[in-house]
Design goal:
- The protein is an alpha/beta fold and 299 residues long.
- The protein is built from eight helices and 15 strands.
- α2 crosses α3.
- The termini are far apart.
- Bound molecules: S-adenosylmethionine.
- S-adenosylmethionine binds next to α3 and β2.
């Protein structure tokens, strides 16, 4: 089995904030006796949480054949085989033997849409969700924010920070996105601006459709535009990869730009551009940002 794939699942299982959020959301969404579809079931953690909250049966849909085989073993080892059925195949075409009351998925990418959760859950819900059924998460939002790094990452190319000039390094660094776990929160120069909001189970596509206008709210030095997601799992349960937290398995996407002093009222017009191919779009470092700064007019 691919050890990088297993390492990825290990990191996801070790993200306690993520597991705890799904635990609380499923406690609200699952009613005693419910039948559940777990889309992209992996190591079955969401299936097992659904059983814990009273589900009578879970259909655990997993596309990766090796992962599905492993899920079968996990179900057998834990005597779940009468309550968890592993369905190997692409969720887009999965037909389950009966209607389900809840569809649950954790397919969020660093920016939100890379793993096509909105599309996959819509496909499963359309074929299999009973009228009045519920989806977890129910909303996925991608946000863009104008930031200054607080002396980490791209911000260290600031000469005053180290006492000598590093402009040459800054000029040599090729443009492109970086994935970043913040040790120190960046300076937020604008609000988090939603550029894609998808109602899960209803929306068909989760990709950003329009540019964001990031209005600068405080004077500072603009270093990057940051992209992150927030997923509303249930009433009062929101999971997000910003601020970074210990054990968080999602880095934050950043698009470094030339260090530029900005003032309140300046505006960064920023548009996320996914790559053309669906396969490439699964990788957040293949996404680009088109952006331009418009200056506040002086009175
Ligand atoms: C981010 S992991 C989540 C695993 C597990 N649900 C958890 O929360 O730990 C996503 C899983 O979805 C599977 N997957 C991706 N695309 C899929 C598709 N189109 N149909 C079914 N499974 C898919 C992947 O193989 C992977 O195991």
């Amino acid at each position: 089995m691919d050890s990088r794939l297993l390492a990825m699942h290990q990191v996801m299982l070790a993200d306690h904030v993520r597991i705890d959020a799904y635990d609380r959301a499923l406690a609200r969404a699952v009613r005693p006796g419910d039948v559940i579809a777990d889309v992209g079931a992996g190591t079955l953690v969401l299936s097992v949480l659904a059983l814990k909250h009273g589900a009578s049966h879970v259909y655990a849909i997993e596309a990766d054949p090796a992962m599905a085989q492993l899920a079968e073993r996990i179900a057998a080892d834990n005597d779940f085989r009468d309550r968890i059925t592993v369905v190997q195949g692409d969720a887009r075409v999965a037909r389950l033997p009966r209607a389900v009351d809840v569809v649950v998925a954790e397919l969020m990418g660093n920016l939100g849409p890379e793993e096509e959760m909105v599309e996959l859950v819509a496909a499963v819900a359309k074929r299999n969700l009973a009228p009045g059924g519920r989806v977890v998460p129910r909303r996925l939002t991608t946000h863009l924010t104008a930031i200054g790094f607080d002396g980490e990452g791209w911000g260290v190319w600031r000469e005053e920070h180290l006492g000598y000039r590093l402009d040459a390094v800054r000029a040599a660094a090729p443009p492109g996105p970086q994935l970043h776990f913040f040790q120190r929160d960046p300076v937020l120069l604008s609000a988090h601006v939603p550029v894609a909001v998808s109602e899960i189970g209803v929306s068909r596509a989760g990709r950003p459709a329009a540019p964001g206008r990031l209005r600068v709210e405080r004077a500072g030095e603009l270093h990057a535009v940051m992209g992150h997601f927030s997923a509303e799992l249930a009433d009062g349960v929101v999971l997000s990869n910003f601020p970074s937290y210990p054990g968080c398995n999602w880095a934050v996407w950043t698009w470094p730009i030339k260090h530029t002093p900005v003032l309140p009222g300046d505006e960064v017009l920023a548009e996320l551009v996914p790559p053309l191919s669906r396969a490439a779009a699964r990788d957040a470092t293949e996404w680009r940002l088109d952006c331009a700064l418009s200056r506040r007019r002086s009175a």
